[in-house]
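This section describes the prediction task in plain terms. A model, or a person checking by hand, is given the sequence of a single protein chain and must write out its three-dimensional structure as a string of tokens. No templates, partner chains or ligands are provided. The sample shown here is typical of the held-out split.
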Amino acid sequence: MVSRGSEKFSCALGALLITGAVWAQTTPTGSPPPAKPTQSPDTPQTSDQVQRAQATSQNEQAASASTIGEVVVTATRANASLQQIPVAVSAYTDERRNLVGIENESDIVNFTPSMSLNGQFLSLRGVGRYTNELGTDPGVAIYVDGIYTNSPDYLNQPDFFADRIEILRGPQGTLSGRNAIGGSVNIIEKRPTDDFHTEERVGYNNVHYLYADASVSGGITQNIQGRLAVSYSDQPTNDGFVRNLANPRFPGSGNTLLTEGQLNFDPTDNLNVWVKVQNFQENLAATYGVNPTQYPGAVSYLAGGLAPNPSSLLPPASNPEIGNRFVVNDNVPGVTQLNDDWTFTTQITGKLSGATLEYTGGYSQYHFNSITDLDGTALTAAPWDNQIAVGPQDHEWYQNELDLKSDGSGSLQWIVGVFQYSERYSAPFYDEEPSNPTLADPQYAGVGGCTFGNCPLAPPNPTQAFYTQVSSLNSESQAIYGQLDYKLTDTFKLTGGLRENWDQKQGQTSYRYIYDTAGAFFAPGITALDVTPGTGTNAGGPASGSRHGDWNALTGKIGAEWQPDDTTLGYVSISKGYKSGAFILGNFVPIPEAGPETLYAYELGLKKTVAKKLLLDADVFYYDYRNLQQVLSVDDTANGGTLITSDLIDAQRARSYGFELESVFSPTDDLHLTFNYSYLNAKFTEFTNTLFPGQQIFDTSMRPPAGCVVGGTASTPCPGVPHNNLNGNTIPQSPANKVTFNPLYTLHLPPGSLTLSATYAWIDKQFYSVFSNSNYEAPSYYNLDLRALFQPNFGHWTFILFARNVTNQLQIVNYGTGSFTSGPANLSPAPATVYPSSGQTTYFINSPRNYGAEVQFRF
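The expected answer:
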């Protein structure tokens, strides 16, 4: 049943719909036409589009400090130049990305102060997501044309489609609301143009990666415009930056195809309708983390004892991955397939007398399937050597948002709105041994005192999975919000906003555990045993469960702006952010729940343009961050539990503070120097086991102290190094320092214009876990990219040469270790000198040095 919030939501939605209906009936037919609806706050027809269609030289695309300040952004739901909004925001237009070579998520991270990305974990100022367990949420909201998505993968889709990418740092508690506790990313795609416009590009690099994009846009009738676009990429199966010694299909190889169609319709002077349909297809070989210092490993667990799986007994001396960061040795190449990925988006904008009414709605769905090598080796001698993980996913979500905004230039500006979001997610996965037929017909373990091989048959197991988990999640979210901006004087403005959020989640899960006696005891398989808790004679709770969560929060912002002249903006704000409560599915213990995260942010900023040559954006901030959701191994034996379990707990409190600077200096029209810097200090100040107070938290990446036991009995060994608290540890993904420098210079030669660009980025060390030890520490690194763009005088063409990671630096972007039990590192009698105590080291890395060429055509 929907909470009391739904009643308020329905009333507010009805009020706005009635307002729109009244307007439709009462607006006089002869009233003066307002500004074109396509220039409304959420559907801007930006100056960038005009520049793309009209630019005849590369120099016209190069932005001086003053023109960067004039970039139109919609970060505050109103068209405004970058230097006129009181928010810490980085904006990357299509032209700027093309000039400096911002092509993927790693490039965006390098340029953006206080930003970090670890796979699916996107963080701004140390605030983001720390686990991808189903039932948890990201902390940075991502919007594509106003539609919310919880995946940062959209930052890695072809940049050819994006007109502008805006990254707002700090909690967006009023206008973005749910799960924007760390900030938000707004991706605004290119829109149809009135005049005919076509754009194509083809690129190729040294590992034979090919990409090709094309679009055509223009008027269809007097009041209808359309746009069609397509993007294709292909990587040969036997090439890439990472090689697989055991299989000819290399990680990441394959192809992608993204197609899109748009229509923009102006039925009247006061009404605009925009519709987008997009389809994405992906068929790639799975990517794997590399293990350059350790062997892969796995273990089995039975009756409190650990037994090594034979596939983990590959000694370091014969491991081909040792010393080579770009080699894996997995007999299963794996696949990642994306099918039925459809997105439908619409925006309907109506002009009232003194206000704009806008509806934004969208629906997305996809089916994703992945197969990956689970045992981490090329061994196939025994059935249990060949293990795979299969993970199909079905995901769909839709959103409706309606807002009413004031128009004009009066002292009072306002916006009110209602928001609704619904999500359905099904995520089963199977850990299988496809060459082990014993698993297909398991028996119950020990029923009636039976012996192995003579126990009652359990239900069939046709997938031959030794672990099966089927989980689903339904999420609902509603909100109402409003914000006022009041100009007290010509130079001083006050802002206040509130948002009420209601969130619900319903999760279900079931699981099955089949024990392979052959894999545990190095002997021919006698049988497979169904040891799922709650079945046969096994204790430990049911093999299925459900969880329901219902949360609400009031968030908002108060702020003040001071603008003594057109080149200066000072601002101060206090805001509150919120991330929905969470639970995890698929655990062997009662499913825990964590309450919402909250963050109180205090910020002071200054934006200044000097003589149209120097642009400075600087801000300082302080965060009071509460109830950070973490999944960790905790001790519940003193509270009636029987195992050391992986549970969702809250880190009670953390604090962060920092400084950020973005600057552009343009001493001449042809020379532009960009310099960005950020400092971040983010620490836990209160972090104990909240789920089982007084009990310890375990770092499973390290060898436990000698004699370490839990639950008061030596029969339960510690799973790692115990901690009473983690106070003082660094918040994950919080590099203390980041520096970016980009000089851009245009030479005017007789045959045309040549623009030279170099981007240097340095990222400080960071931890990818709440345990601030070397096992989870990614070292600092720097990156140097070079780019040359030549545009001949005859126009329309651009020729590009590029080189990325020129100095071939090792750039670790996801670093961690498996449990110390993930291999024989800490199992007797293997000494630590033979098998290091840190267990399995695995990390993902950026590409090594690569280079290539690109050709572009615009007309």
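For orientation: The chain is about 5% helix and 50% strand.
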